[in-house]
User: Which sequence fits this backbone?
């Protein structure tokens, strides 16, 4: 629809907002100039209407009673891929922050619920072209801003290992469906650890690629410098296979460097990992007030298995690992408010493929009802708005300028070692808070576990989480960090570990909750 010019009262409010110093006579002089500028907006809308994609007719349904025991399905569908290909016959759950054309998308939020994308995300197109079948959208946390599994507007996602506990987030539904054996593969998104944290807490494999290796096109953004999509699977071989399908430039995502060369990750893991050097980052263990002894002991047992498989393992310190978390916190507070909140997800000023309909849908809902945000999103919105209002982005600029130092600290450690290892998350899966839990509890259960994963989102290094031995009967993750665009070595070490321990366990049948 045409842009409605501002009324005299609205124009006065706009001038007052930015203290433009216009009296009534000045406002009257500017009114026709402002109104005249919107002619181009109307013409652009007409031009776009001639080119905008139309959503295909795809059958979908809400999860039926009895098929959503974990609260992990947002919507069910069956989108058949190509008749042949490396993923032929494999089923995939797509995280509900990522578009499947013609199928509803909510991104875990009441403010996105009701939107139906017209175009498949690049990773979805690639999975379908490789022969996969998309069997539904998996629940994710509210706007993907939680490392727990209790913030989605559809309700909590429950862990197949213990239904009273979190799966981790924000790719919570993908993790639960994989752990329960309901799909072969799943997609995840990772801005603070949201592929790796649920992988660790649900006993599966999750790989966060190097920033820019996998196109983010068609997924709901949080902050473009930390946005990642990656595969979640039950085996490392499946992660390698899926990453090979998903990776590579699409020409639509400015997060990607001009030259991104995908690798045959399956061939790479077949090379083995004997003789590779593993740096055990002591800064990721024994975190005061947080680390569970069982988690640290489990990861050290996994490291013993790597040493037994012929890898060289030694302890190192990367002090900037702790500092990088603070850098991430500023980027993910100011940056999220500027892009995901004020910028209606996509923001402005970048050259790539936007989704005008999603921007408008979410923007209008946000304008009408920010009270529908989760406690976590409310917290970051208030903190970021205050910081930006008082400091005008000064701390964001400092954080971005510190990034080369933080990145160099990991790079220096990786010059002496092929990979770095630490616990994926320092805690065991926590009990899901009650729906009426106070904000302090809800936010703590959403953010307390991200200290080891978030740094590599801001530095861009690849990282794989694989299941370490159980602790108190619950899953633990070991995180393997590699050099940027050397995702293959992360997966080589992960595969060597999987072979050394004889594969990863599945949840006991006794953990199952009643259907429905």
Assistant:
């Amino acid at each position: 629809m045409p842009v409605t010019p501002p009324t005299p009262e609205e124009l006065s409010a706009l001038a007052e907002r930015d203290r433009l110093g216009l009296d009534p006579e000045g406002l009257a002089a500017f009114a026709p100039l402002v109104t005249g500028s919107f002619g181009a907006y109307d013409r652009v809308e007409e031009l776009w209407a001639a080119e905008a994609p139309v959503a295909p007719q795809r059958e979908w349904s809400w999860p039926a009673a009895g098929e959503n025991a974990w609260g992990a399905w947002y919507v069910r569908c069956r989108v058949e891929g190509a008749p042949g290909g490396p993923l032929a016959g494999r089923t995939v759950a797509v995280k509900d922050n990522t578009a499947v054309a013609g199928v509803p998308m909510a991104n875990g939020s009441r403010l996105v619920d009701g939107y139906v994308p017209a175009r498949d995300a690049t990773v979805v197109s690639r999975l379908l072209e490789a022969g996969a079948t998309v069997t539904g959208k998996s629940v994710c946390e509210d706007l993907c801003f939680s490392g727990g599994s209790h913030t989605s507007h559809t309700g909590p996602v429950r862990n197949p290992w213990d239904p009273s506990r979190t799966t981790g987030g924000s790719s919570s539904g993908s993790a639960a469906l994989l752990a329960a054996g309901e799909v072969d593969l799943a997609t995840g998104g990772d801005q603070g650890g949201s592929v790796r944290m649920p992988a660790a807490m649900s006993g599966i494999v999750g790989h966060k690629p190097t920033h820019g290796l996998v196109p983010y096109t068609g997924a709901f953004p949080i902050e473009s410098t930390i946005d990642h999509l990656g595969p979640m699977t039950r085996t490392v071989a499946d992660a390698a296979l899926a990453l090979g399908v998903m990776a590579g430039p699409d020409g639509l995502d400015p997060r990607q460097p001009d030259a991104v060369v995908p690798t045959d990750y399956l061939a790479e893991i077949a090379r083995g990992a004997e003789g590779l050097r593993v740096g055990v980052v002591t800064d990721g263990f024994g975190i005061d007030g947080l680390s569970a002894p069982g988690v640290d002991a489990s990861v050290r047992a996994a490291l013993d298995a790597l040493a037994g498989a012929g890898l060289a393992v030694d302890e190192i310190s990367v002090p900037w690992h702790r500092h990088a978390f603070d850098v991430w916190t500023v980027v993910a507070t100011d940056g999220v408010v500027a892009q995901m909140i004020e910028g209606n997800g996509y923001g402005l000023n970048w050259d790539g493929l936007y989704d005008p309909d999603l921007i408008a849908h979410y923007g209008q809902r946000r304008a009408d009802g920010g009270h529908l945000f989760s406690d976590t999103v409310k917290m970051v919105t208030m903190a970021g708005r205050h910081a930006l209002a008082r400091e005008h982005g000064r701390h964001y600029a400092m954080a971005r300028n510190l990034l080369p130092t933080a990145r160099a600290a990991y790079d220096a450690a990786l010059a002496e070692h092929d990979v770095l290892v630490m616990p994926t998350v320092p805690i065991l899966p926590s009990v899901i808070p009650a729906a009426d839990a106070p904000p302090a509890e809800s936010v703590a259960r959403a953010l307390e576990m991200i200290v080891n994963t978030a740094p590599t989102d801001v530095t861009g290094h690849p990282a794989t989480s694989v299941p370490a031995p159980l602790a108190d009967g619950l899953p633990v993750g070991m995180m393997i960090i590699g050099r940027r665009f050397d995702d293959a070595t992360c997966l080589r070490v992960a595969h060597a570990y999987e072979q050394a321990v004889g594969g990863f366990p599945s949840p006991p049948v006794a953990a199952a909750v009643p259907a429905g």
